[in-house]
């Protein structure tokens, strides 16, 4: 039955029909009709302090729940402030629907106040976007946006709605099905290619599986574990693939790449078959490791554009990782020996010199929490420390910006993750450089009383670049010393957040215990040596 209502109210009704319970955003003049309609709904709105944080919080929510995250902004600078967050979601295949207000449709193209071509600006890094000028199309467009964001290789979709369109009246009716001509994501891999993959795995003497973020996105971790244990295949992962299999699993060797673990890179160099699942193997994933002519490659990915893009592939399989791995498991036999046992045994033992190192902190967190947490990280040295030293027990509990490498991601992602999974402990791992990109989200934490924990490594440096300048620029340091850092304990107190500064190893266990037992938001500042290397 059709009901008359404004486009703004129809937008809210579509969100409700998609099961949306929470959105993140900031209102403005060009989006006020939508906010007015939102007032009467049960959808929770989280007021952020900058629009970029809105996308990151929607991302943390989406990656924790598997649902589509929703963020909202007004026109002009509100919309452009979303751009970094949208690009971050695009690179990491996170399902987001971003709704933006636009100036009056009759004024578009006239450079009026707070006008910007946000659909044109975001076209390169959205799965799709829409400028809705016909009010009758709003329901179909929003339904399509959710469908596109959540199917195939997931990603962000932007819907831009002029203010006058939001105010017009339409006859509202939810379509039963969404059919988009030409958009047919392929989930089932070709049976012949799957048969070839099984034969190649069984013929290989030194196979290696590289797990990427696609394993986690498709919820294929159990299928991966079955294949790994059946064939006793060592597993290496990309940054985005951490947690696809427990990092304590006996066949897991660590993260590969330029900042990867030695054992993982060594296994990749020795392998005669590489099975890539849900990863694109970009430059940082491969690092200095060259794919030799003697190594065969099976590449499983739901996005055909990724197969063969960075490495030549012998057996391409386009399909959902969960389905393809399940089919392989039905046909694969069992292997008797784990060929990488000697490599696994070479794991580096880190020294205990009495000093407080970041890896000490992360390992103590792992011990006291026993992996029962969701971790978010920012980008920099602390991201690599976390990737190497934290125990990640379950898939989807290591949330980071992999493809774009966006500083400022960690804290807002933690806020979104906590809203998505309120019963889980959520810990943001950050550095003093990244934290200060979006530290105003402490206000969101205070306003919403979000009980996230923040571990802030303070080395008064932009550590990753500082280390780069030290090694490659003969110590000619420029623009990497953060001498103007605030007192982070006073800052936390100003927002009503409890905090503690950790400066010595003697207080380590106590500090983690205090953080763990505290029921509200908590900031643990860890004073770190500026010359602490990314990889010891």
From TrEMBL:
Pathway: Amino-acid biosynthesis; L-isoleucine biosynthesis; L-isoleucine from 2-oxobutanoate: step 1/4; Amino-acid biosynthesis; L-valine biosynthesis; L-valine from pyruvate: step 1/4
Thiamine pyrophosphate enzyme central domain segment(s): 194-327
GO molecular function terms attached to this record: acetolactate synthase activity; flavin adenine dinucleotide binding; magnesium ion binding; thiamine pyrophosphate binding
Thiamine pyrophosphate enzyme TPP-binding domain span: 378-526
Alphabetized UniProt keyword annotations: Amino-acid biosynthesis, Branched-chain amino acid biosynthesis, Magnesium, Metal-binding, Thiamine pyrophosphate, Transferase
Gene Ontology CC: one annotated term: acetolactate synthase complex
Top-level taxonomic group: Bacteria
BP GO annotations: isoleucine biosynthetic process; L-valine biosynthetic process
Residue ranges of every copy of the Thiamine pyrophosphate enzyme N-terminal TPP-binding domain listed in the record: 5-119
Catalysed reactions, as listed in the record: 2 pyruvate + H(+) = (2S)-2-acetolactate + CO2
Presence of the UniProt keyword Transferase in the record: yes
PROSITE patterns according to UniProt: TPP_ENZYMES
Protein's UniProt keywords contain Zinc: no
Cofactor dependency: thiamine diphosphate; Mg(2+)
Note describing how the cofactor binds: Binds 1 thiamine pyrophosphate per subunit.
Record-linked PANTHER family: ACETOLACTATE SYNTHASE CATALYTIC SUBUNIT, MITOCHONDRIAL, THIAMINE PYROPHOSPHATE ENZYMES
Family indicated by similarity: Belongs to the TPP enzyme family.
Protein name according to UniProt: Acetolactate synthase
Source species: Caldicellulosiruptor obsidiansis (strain ATCC BAA-2073 / JCM 16842 / OB47)
